[in-house]
């Protein structure tokens, strides 16, 4: 079926007359940025397009509540942002969205309230700001010029701060809890003196990844590799 045929069929099954079904289909395709692909078969859609048509199909009749189970898993950044915009539009129209995700930046971007689940138990709940404040520490964010320097920088941060350091997927960004501002000030000098080229150095609120690490003792990425896959839940 094409995108249009799929949505028209669902609308007809849900009680729309023929004209109403076509109008609702066109409205949803436009809202989800799929009008140009309306007459293409869904089997030829990209992963991001399929996620959007799936969500469109679930709101042919606008629901008060919708559950989305990891809607952006495996998507490229562009498709992921498109799904984020869809979720925001649903909330703006008055729909409550309960969303599960392994991506804590996604929870930070989308959630009014967040429940963090580890090994099947809710271990923390609140707004993003409340969860970050609960950790009780600042977060040091460091970015170096070259991936080869990240290992040296990481070792220096661990030695100075006495805490675990997280390395981002880009290979050059590091973050760690920092309770003592005086240590942070001296760290920049130490890094520069050791020949590490620092392109970004800031102290601020911890990220949700750092909150998760502080609450559970392990990074969120570790959960994604487990068969039970405990995950943070997001409610809008």
Report on the structure:
The chain has helices at residues 3-13, 18-31, 47-58, 77-92, 104-110, 128-135, 147-161, 181-193, 208-216, 220-224; strands at residues 65-69, 96-100, 113-118, 121-126, 138-144, 165-167, 173-178, 198-204, 233-235. It has 236 residues and is α+β, with helices and mostly antiparallel strands. The protein has two domains: 3-100, Rossmann fold; 138-205, Alpha-Beta Plaits (2-Layer Sandwich). Strands 1-2-9-3-4 form a five-stranded mixed sheet, covered by helices on one side. The longest helix has 16 residues, at 77-92. The chain is elongated. The two termini are 32 Å apart.
Features:
9 strands, 236 residues, alpha+beta, Alpha-Beta Plaits, elongated, four-stranded antiparallel β-sheet, five-stranded mixed β-sheet, Rossmann fold
């Amino acid at each position: 079926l094409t995108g249009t045929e799929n949505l028209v069929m669902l609308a007809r099954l849900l009680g729309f007359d023929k004209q109403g079904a076509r109008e609702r289909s066109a409205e949803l395709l436009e809202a989800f940025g799929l009008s140009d692909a309306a007459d293409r078969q869904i089997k030829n859609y990209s992963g991001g397009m399929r996620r959007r048509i799936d969500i469109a199909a679930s709101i042919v009749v606008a629901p008060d509540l919708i559950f989305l189970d990891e809607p952006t898993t495996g998507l490229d950044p562009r498709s992921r942002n498109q799904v984020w915009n869809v979720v925001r539009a649903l909330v703006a129209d008055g729909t409550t969205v309960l969303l599960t995700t392994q991506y804590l930046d996604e929870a930070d971007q989308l959630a009014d309230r967040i429940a963090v689940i580890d090994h099947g138990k809710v271990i923390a709940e609140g707004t993003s700001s409340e969860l970050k404040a609960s950790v009780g520490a600042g977060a040091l964010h460091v970015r170096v010029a070259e991936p080869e320097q990240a290992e040296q920088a990481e070792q220096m941060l661990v030695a100075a701060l006495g805490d675990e350091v997280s390395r981002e997927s880009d290979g050059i960004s590091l973050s760690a809890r920092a309770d003592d501002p005086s240590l942070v000030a001296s760290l920049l000098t130490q890094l520069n003196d050791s020949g590490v080229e620092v392109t970004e150095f800031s102290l601020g609120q911890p990220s949700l990844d750092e909150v998760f690490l502080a609450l559970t003792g392990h990074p969120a990425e570790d959960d994604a590799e487990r068969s039970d896959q405990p995950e943070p839940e997001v409610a809008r």
